[in-house]
Backbone:
């Protein structure tokens, strides 16, 4: 009787269940070790986050999550030092979205359209100093001259710079 009850019992679909399930899938196991390490970190951060009600995010039923829940997570997430970490929050929400979508492929009671990450606006990301830079003829000539004058650089460097410039390559 206990066995039939256990077989008939529906698994409680919580955030914790979803993330643990995702990490047991062949898709997850096929990721590179570095990706798995990052995802393990994201899972820990998401599961240990606390809602306004004081409940661990891991215990929140999937049906109770709304885009507003994820949006609030995005704008309030802080790292271990207590600093806002908008880029880290973006990665965690993107990871959660992927896990949710993957679960929807295998579980009929999870609907992709109900993914709480759909419609959420990610935090703005700014590049690390690789803004657009337009090379002028003068700057190209200057850097080619520097490359020729520097004995530690190979002699093909000015030629490579000219080819890159002419082909509009970004190096």
Residues:
């Amino acid at each position: 009787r206990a066995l039939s009850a256990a077989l008939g019992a529906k698994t409680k679909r919580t955030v914790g269940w979803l993330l643990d399930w995702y990490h047991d899938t062949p898709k997850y196991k096929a990721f590179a070790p570095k990706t798995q390490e990052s995802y393990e970190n994201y899972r820990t951060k998401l599961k240990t986050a606390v809602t306004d009600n004081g409940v661990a995010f891991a215990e929140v039923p999937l049906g109770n999550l709304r885009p507003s829940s994820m949006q609030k997570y995005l704008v309030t997430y802080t790292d271990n030092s207590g600093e806002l970490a908008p880029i880290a929050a973006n990665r965690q929400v993107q990871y959660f979205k992927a896990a949710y979508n993957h679960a929807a492929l295998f579980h009929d009671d999870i609907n992709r359209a109900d993914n709480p990450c759909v419609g959420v606006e990610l935090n703005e990301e700014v590049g690390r100093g690789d803004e657009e830079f337009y090379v002028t003829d003068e700057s190209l000539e200057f850097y080619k001259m520097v490359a020729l004058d520097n004995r530690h650089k190979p002699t093909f460097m000015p030629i490579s710079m000219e080819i890159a410039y002419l082909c509009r390559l970004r190096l």
The radius of gyration is 24 Å. Helices lie at 2-8, 15-23, 26-29, 33-48, 67-76, 86-106, 137-149, 157-166. The chain has eight helices and no strands. The chain has a mean pLDDT of 85.
